[in-house]
Amino acid sequence: MTPAISLHGVSKRYGSIVALDNVSFDVPAGSVCALLGANGAGKSTTLKILLGLVSPDSGTAKVGGLDSREDALDIRRTVGYVPERPALYDWMTVEEIGWFAAGLYPADYQMQYQKLLDRYALSGKQKIKDLSKGNRSKVALALALAHQPQVLILDEPTSGLDPLVRREFLESMVDVAAEGRTVIISSHQVQEVERVADRVAILLHGQLVCHERLDELKQSCREVSALLGPGQTAPPDMPGEVLAHLPMGHEHVWLVRGLDEREWHSRCQAGNTITEIRHPDLEDLLLLLLREYRKRESKPEVRTPKLEAGTAK
Questions:
Q1: pLDDT digits (tens, 9 = 90+) for 220-253
Q2: What letter does residue 74 receive in the DSSP assignment?
Q3: 141 with 157: CB under 8 angstroms?
Q4: H-assigned helices in the chain
């Protein structure tokens, strides 16, 4: 089956800055994929390349089988897109901007748009210029969703929304996916995105370090902390794939994949090391990877940590 979203070997530079470095991943139809990473990791560039708003230096990007270089206009007609800073005509009313957009879409667009306005408690008579940041975001969401696109590309779509509306919107993405449609969402609201995403892609400094099913990622990873015993100068060797290691004096924290817990406890007992093992949530996992990357920034010869063992195809 053709993936809804596909990137293969995509690289992009802005002068001396590497925005994306040989990024490849597919998102199957009917998925909600969270695209995560720190500011400047390459998330917005990835979404713009998919839409044909930015051309990659190398590699290919496709949405619904359409090539982002050759079919950019067709892609933008068929997907729903909400950028981080939506460009809206301030002099129009909320109702007028929906009427204006309806000329580009099927006949029932205005009806669907009005339903979304009602859902978001927006008045059609208000001028765009008079709206709060949160309500501007709601208008942008309504415009993107009213033609019921098969693929939604969302770049920080809930920025400025109050917690209840933000959660309701994100939870509605599960219903979208259940209809066979696909969502890729870049967001800093990691805890809330975790509630609705079934896949995750993590970018660090333009490199893809993880792309797989979220449940498999969380099941295979452990956060391990250890407090060294008297006289210990180094922790025991870790029996598993170390994705991040953060030494803090006598305390150490690791993100480990495939941990042999019995062997680890045995090694800790031999050295009188106090240890704790927990299942990290997505935000914990992301923060540990980010801190590991920052630790390695001054060592360009050390490769960015990658969660390759469980990468899903």
A1: 999 999 999 888 889 999 999 999 999 988 899 9
A2: H
A3: yes
A4: 43-51, 72-78, 94-102, 109-119, 133-145, 163-178, 190-196, 214-220, 261-270, 282-296
Sign, CA torsion 189/143/109/111: positive
Which helix (H) or strand (E) is 210 found in, with range?
A: strand 207-213
Length of the chain: 313
* Residue range(s) of every CATH 3.40.50.300 domain in the chain: 5-214
What DSSP assignment string belongs to 119-172? HTT--TTSBGGGS-HHHHHHHHHHHHHTT--SEEEEESTTTT--HHHHHHHHHH
Largest separation between any pair of C-alpha atoms in the chain: 76
pTM, rounded to two decimals: 0.85
**Cα–Cα dist 21/13, whole Å:** 8
Q: What is the pLDDT of residues 102-117, one digit of tens each?
A: 988 888 999 999 999 9
Cα–Cα distance for residue pair 13/248, rounded to 1 Å? 35
- Domain ranges in the chain with CATH number 3.30.70: 217-308
Query: CATH 3.40.50.300: does it fit domain 5-214?
Result: yes
Domain 217-308 has CATH 1.10.10: no
> What's the confidence (pLDDT) of residue 28?
94
